[in-house]
Write a structure and sequence with these properties.
eight-stranded mixed β-sheet, disordered C terminus, about 40% helix, about 325 residues, alpha/beta
C-alpha cells in the first residue's frame, strides 16, 4: 500500500488520501514534490528509456540549452553532449501510473493513438493492463518493443504497438476490442516535429494539424467503450506572433463534438528543467510567462458513476516495481 513520504508533515486527512487513492486526487498534480520525484526515480530505476527511437531535438529547449552553453543557436547544431531532457521530451511515468490506477478497471484495455515512446505501454503492463498504441514511425515501434522485451517478465501483459496513423480510418479495423481508457499525449503542433513522414501531423500547418487531431479524437472516441474515461495530456503552443493558439481548446471541442462530457481537468506542475533558462528572455522581451505546466484533460463517455462502479476501488498495492526484468 502506498504511504505518504516520511518527514512530509502532511495533515491526517491528506495522509488518508495517499492511503486510499495512492495520491491525493486534486486538480493540481505536483511533479516537483518529494513524493513524486522519489516515485519517478523508482520507475526510471527499472530501466525505462522512453527517449529511444527519438532522434530529433525539442527545438525550443535545445536552443535555450545551447545558448546557455555558449553554443550556436541552431536546431542543426550537433548536441550529442546535451542531457536527455534537452534532446527529447519524455512522458512522466508517475502521471501515467496515476491515470491508470484512477481511471482503468482491473485488467482493462488502454488505447493510445499517439504512442510515442515506451512509457505508457510499459507502465500499463506493470499494472497488469492491456495496452495498444499507434505510432506512425517504424523506428519508434521497434525501440518500444525492445524496451518491453527487456523490462517485462513472461507473466506481464505484453503491450502492443502498431505502425498506424491515428488520423486514418484504419483505426477502426485495428481495434477489435473496445478500449476501457483512451489515454495519450498528442503532438503539440509543430513545437516538436517527430519525423518527415508525409502523414505526421506534427509537421503540418496549424489549421491542418488541428483538423487532423480533431478527426483522430472523434474516431478514437467512437471506439471507446461506454461508461469509460478518456484523458489527453496537452500544453499550449504559440503562433509566430507569440500568442497562444489554444491547443487545449481544440481538444475540448473535439471531445464535445464526439459526444463525451468534459469531466475534470488537472494541472501538472512540471519539474523546472530549462524553464529558468527560457523565462528571462521571454519576460524581458514582451512579458511572456514561461510555461511550467501541462493540462490533463479528462472526459467521460456515458455515465461517470457507472464508470466509477466498473472501475472499482483504486488499487493501492505497490508490488509492480518488484516485478523485475526477465
Amino acid at each position: 500500500m502506498a504511504k505518504a513520504p516520511k518527514n512530509h508533515h502532511l495533515k491526517t486527512s491528506k495522509d488518508a488520501l495517499y492511503r486510499d487513492f495512492f495520491y491525493p486526487p486534486f486538480s493540481t498534480l505536483d511533479a516537483r514534490s518529494g513524493w513524486w520525484q522519489a516515485r519517478k526515480r523508482q520507475w526510471l530505476a527499472i530501466g525505462l528509456q522512453s527517449e529511444r527511437g527519438r532522434g530529433n531535438a525539442f527545438t525550443s529547449i535545445s536552443s535555450a540549452w545551447q545558448a546557455q552553453q555558449g553554443k550556436p543557436n541552431s536546431s542543426k547544431t550537433p548536441i550529442e553532449s546535451a542531457p536527455s531532457w534537452v534532446t527529447t521530451s519524455i512522458f512522466d511515468p508517475v502521471l501515467c501510473e496515476l491515470m491508470y490506477r484512477w481511471f482503468v478497471p482491473r485488467g482493462g484495455l488502454v488505447f493510445d493513438p499517439f504512442a510515442g515512446g515506451s512509457v505508457r505501454g510499459i507502465v500499463a503492463a506493470k499494472l497488469g493492463l492491456e495496452y495498444i498504441g499507434f505510432d506512425i514511425r517504424a523506428e519508434q515501434i521497434k525501440a518500444n518493443q525492445a524496451q518491453a522485451k527487456a523490462l517485462l517478465n513472461r507473466d506481464s501483459p505484453k503491450p502492443i504497438w502498431k505502425e498506424k496513423d491515428a488520423c486514418a480510418r484504419s483505426i477502426y479495423q485495428s481495434l477489435r476490442k473496445r478500449p476501457d481508457f483512451l489515454f495519450t499525449c498528442p503532438p503539440y503542433g509543430d513545437l516538436e516535429v517527430y519525423s518527415d513522414h508525409p502523414d505526421d501531423i506534427s509537421a503540418m500547418p496549424w489549421d491542418t494539424f488541428a483538423g487532423a487531431l480533431t478527426h483522430s479524437i472523434k474516431q478514437a472516441s467512437a471506439r471507446l467503450a461506454d461508461n469509460r474515461f478518456a484523458a489527453f495530456v496537452v500544453s499550449d503552443i504559440r503562433d509566430k506572433k507569440g500568442n497562444y493558439r489554444g491547443l487545449p481548446d481544440v481538444v475540448r471541442a473535439a471531445f464535445k463534438d464526439a459526444g463525451l462530457g468534459y469531466h475534470s481537468e488537472a494541472v501538472l506542475i512540471n519539474a523546472l528543467g530549462t524553464v529558468p533558462i527560457r523565462s528571462r528572455g521571454y519576460f524581458e522581451n514582451d512579458r511572456k510567462l514561461a510555461r511550467a505546466h501541462q493540462n490533463v484533460l479528462l472526459f467521460v463517455k456515458g455515465c461517470p458513476k457507472k464508470a466509477k462502479d466498473d472501475i472499482g476501488d483504486v488499487p493501492c498495492d505497490d508490488t509492480l516495481l518488484s516485478i523485475g526484468r526477465t
